[in-house]
Amino acid sequence: MQVYKELPILTAQPDLSDQLHSPHRLYSIIEMDTHYSVAIWLDWVKREITSCKEKRRAPVIVGGSGLYIKSLVDGLAFIPGISESTRRKMAEMISSSDSVSLHKRLFAYDPDLARRLAPSDLKRITRGLAVYLETRIALSKWQSDTKPYLPRDEFFIINVDIERESLYRNCNTRFVAMLKMGAVDEVETLLNQKPGIKYPKILGLYELINWLEGKTTKEEAIEKAQQFTRNYAKRQTTWFRNQMRYDFFLRKGGRYEQ
């Protein structure tokens, strides 16, 4: 979310003092109505890494989006696009079946993927079905053929381990600080300049929009935004704990542990 130009405060992008301390890249680089994906980010970040190597500098990749970091570490599967004819077939299947039935059908084509998905996960179920109908190859097979972008001995991964109580407190205080820094003005400008577009699910954005449109009070908006931020932080912590392999953990007090 920090790639978007319109909301530098609400997405906690590095400010001028951060930029003066050390160069930052790939922040505030596209507008919100521009197509963007993890594949595009990977192309950009690989160029930045190459540039750092040429200058004999050590790049530090930071982030909270697990998909992006994991894709850089493990690689991103190449999956052919879905044709219009397959999209029509999928639309017919969705209109005549529920997610449980589609989940059972996915088991026949891609049991490995089906076992990883809940029967209610319609979006990922239909994605798996569409890929198989298009290519006659299971999505899990495409994913297993993925090659890493970087050799594993060229980098190390650090998990910044924060106690749950401190993490939640930071979530609450950070959102209030964002409001004082001008986050509401950012959102108002966004609504005026880009009305009607589908806004990304940026934490706090829709809560502030609802307040500005008179649907909730300021207090309710703050409380909901803080709650959603804490929920996200909890999911994020769990995901990183289970999905990544770490070389070091940065503990309380600045201690590093392997």
From TrEMBL:
GO biological process, one term: tRNA modification
InterPro entries in alphabetical order: Dimethylallyltransferase, IPT, P-loop_NTPase
Catalytic activity as recorded in UniProt: adenosine(37) in tRNA + dimethylallyl diphosphate = N(6)-dimethylallyladenosine(37) in tRNA + diphosphate
NCBIfam families per UniProt: miaA
Pfam families: IPPT
Enzyme Commission identifier(s): 2.5.1.75
Family: Belongs to the IPP transferase family.
Protein known as: tRNA dimethylallyltransferase
Gene responsible for this protein: miaA
